[in-house]
Design goal:
- This protein has 2 domains: 2-31, no CATH class; 39-118, no CATH class.
- Helix 2 packs across helix 3.
- It has helices at residues 25-31, 39-53, 67-76, 108-118; strands at 2-8, 14-19, 60-65, 88-93, 100-106.
- The chain is of the alpha+beta class.
């Protein structure tokens, strides 16, 4: 409902107009382009992305992960994801990331250099 406040009348009443507006399905899709996932779903999406989607032709991946997601991952998946993927995985915890973010893909040397420059603390076991 779109609401418009027009002001106070001479009688001291607030004048307000309201209009019901319906959005087309296209507008609804465009308004919310990214679905919101639970943290458990994000764990499984991350595992699938690392195993099948990211960095197929790269030596290494730098991953930023929310600490909460890392804890949920430990509860849900007993095995390490890093042992299953062919790339070397560098993981850093970052509370400002909503779930996870692939920061960089490339050679091992390039990622190590970037980690050193930025002073990141990374873990290779995930």
């Amino acid at each position: 409902v779109r609401t418009q406040i027009l002001g106070i009348t001479r009688l001291g009443l607030m004048e307000i107009t309201r209009k019901n507006e319906w959005m087309s399905p296209v507008q609804l899709i465009q308004e919310n382009p990214e679905p919101v996932f639970t943290i458990e779903t994000a764990v499984f999406r991350l595992e699938r992305e690392l195993l099948f989607g990211v960095g197929k032709n790269q030596e290494a991946i730098l991953l930023s992960i929310n600490p909460r997601l890392k804890n949920v991952k430990k509860q849900l998946l007993s095995g390490r994801i890093s042992s299953k993927i062919p790339q070397e995985l560098f993981v850093r915890e970052d509370p400002s990331v909503s779930h996870y973010q692939i920061e960089l893909e490339g050679s091992v040397d390039m990622i190590r250099e970037m980690v050193h420059k930025r002073g990141y603390h990374v873990d290779n076991l995930f």
